[in-house]
Amino acid sequence: MKILRQVYLIALYLLISFELFAQIYSNTNSNLISKKDLLEKVSVLTSDEFEGRLSGSDGYNKAAAYSAELFKSFNLKPAGDEGYFQNLKVEYNKILQPAVFNLLKEGKVFKEYELGRDFIFRGFTGSADVKAQVVFCGYGISQPEDGFDDYKDVNVNGKIVMVFKYHPRWQKEGIEIKNGSIREKSRLAFEHGAKAIIFVSFPNDKKPQGVIGSILDGEGEHLITFPQLHISIEAADDILEQTGYKLKDLQSKIDSTKQSFSFNTYSKVHVIATAEYNKQAPTMNVVGIIEGSDSVLKKEFIVIGAHLDHVGSQAGKVIFYGANDNASGSAGVIQIAETLSKSRSSLKRSVIFVLFASEELGLFGSKHFVKSPPVNPDKIVAMLNLDCIGHGDSIQIGNGKSAPVLWQLIKKIDEKSSGLMVERTWAGGGADASPFHDIGIPSAYFVTTNSYEHLHERTDRVDTLNPELYEAIVNLAYSSLIELASGNYQKEKIVNEN
Length: 498
Fold this sequence. Notes:
By secondary structure, the protein is an alpha/beta fold. The protein folds into 2 domains: about 30-90 and about 280-485, Zn peptidases (Aminopeptidase, 3-Layer(aba) Sandwich), CATH 3.40.630; about 95-275, 3-Layer(bba) Sandwich (Glucose Oxidase, domain 1), CATH 3.50.30. Helix content is about 30%, strand content about 25%. The chain contains 12 helices and 18 strands. The strands form 3 sheets. Strands 1, 2, 3, 4, 5, 8, 9, 10, 11, 12, 15, 16, 17 and 18 form a 14-stranded mixed β-sheet that branches. A hairpin with a 4-residue loop joins β6 (about 140-145) and β7. The model is unreliable at about 1-30 (pLDDT under 50).
């Protein structure tokens, strides 16, 4: 009987020990967050209902409302101006139907191009109905004072200008090529009398850029009656067909001579762009807080954020879903918030969860957050930014040269978990981490290596994500956040190293 009692006690001890171990393991396991939960949230954020989440749009507002409801269900403390919303205003341009780009011959449609495949409007296109000849103007540079002017020997008045989207990668001695933004190139064409502008990618790149959605236009006034579109290399070659050139020939010629080469193609196209512009459209960050459990350290904060916005939709039928950019980061922040809301006592410091608006336009959401923070910014110990974390083959943590102690902390955690973090890093923040870096807050930019294969393309969907890598990087961010919120990390001084 005594032996049986001892066996029972040993068995009971082993059972309790096993359960205790399992509990400890579950609290430190690097895969507390599952790819299944992450992908479910990405699927919601990339649904047609949210229309590509362009800041200022109804679709973005719905995505923000969905996120705020989740924060509320996790019992996060609201930290916005009104509940979870921190309000700001941004430029917004809604692209509507009709949306037309056709090649004409003898006044009739010779070739009809498809929106989203053969062409796309720039995010801040103006509205107009234009039938005109196309004039090729190289890189769209006009600096006659420096001896380089793509408009010098051509008449573009009343015509449509076609230029390379970006400035040349070469430098010409004695010339500093000035502002090459989309808005600046459009302004130059407009001032020379053009009625619209067509942008083309570099055909000689190893992987030429396709027609992508983009709203990053640069500074300056919106040209409300001036269409801007980006066409495929194939469509550009159609326009050039009767000249004897292909687009790749023109890039090679200009790049080799470093001389302007502009001419009238004599091809005629029909462009119809329809848009509604709002210079001060309301939008919002989504902000919530989990307070720390330590009476002293809870007055210090760790920020973890991701931009919720993407580049929207056009004409009600072409949607840029933005699964990797950046539904992946937003879903990661939301899932980490949900997981931590169930184990609040493990946090000594407080944690601010924020989904930023308008990163795609120029970091306006994160800049607004830093300018009007919900807490004293001096009390923010560190910032973790999750951006484009669902596609690729390994993990990069940016800003390690500016916040090396923070970077090493994350590296050590990775070595004990997935081991997927590479040595490559950089200085200066990056994306929504930059405004924090700029005011002296150490930051870490979580991003996957080779992440941009589908950047701003319609193929950036849930089915092109890497679920295993995605799960690994979110768990690394979660474990890093736990370590930072434990109080073991002390705020470091930013290192100004490039």
